[in-house]
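Chapter review: from sequence to fold.
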Amino acid sequence: MKLRALSIRQPQAEAIMRGVKTTEYRKRPTNIRGRVYVYASLGRYSTAEEAELMAKYGIEDVSCDDLPRGVIVGTVDLCDCDGGEWHLRDPERAKRLRKPKNKPQPVWFNPF
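The token string follows.
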């Protein structure tokens, strides 16, 4: 079964993989449910925003600059959607990081 990938910037993708971030906020609701890839996008927040997010999620054992970008970092179960709140659970970190074969998109894309 082909999974869709959800593009998320770091350090939020890392927070999802750690199980700290369980809600993704988007402008639109989604009907997609089940396991999806988490793609750590190449986009960056400002240095100040990244530092604030790292502190918010309690990520202290790695610097934001060292987090993987441009790769699939794992999967997560998108279990529910309440308007713009997408509820996530059961993250599974990828055993190896993979670059998508298809061009990443801002929200959903088919990576392979």
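Two observations follow directly from the output. The chain is about 15% helix and 40% strand. The chain has a mean pLDDT of 96.
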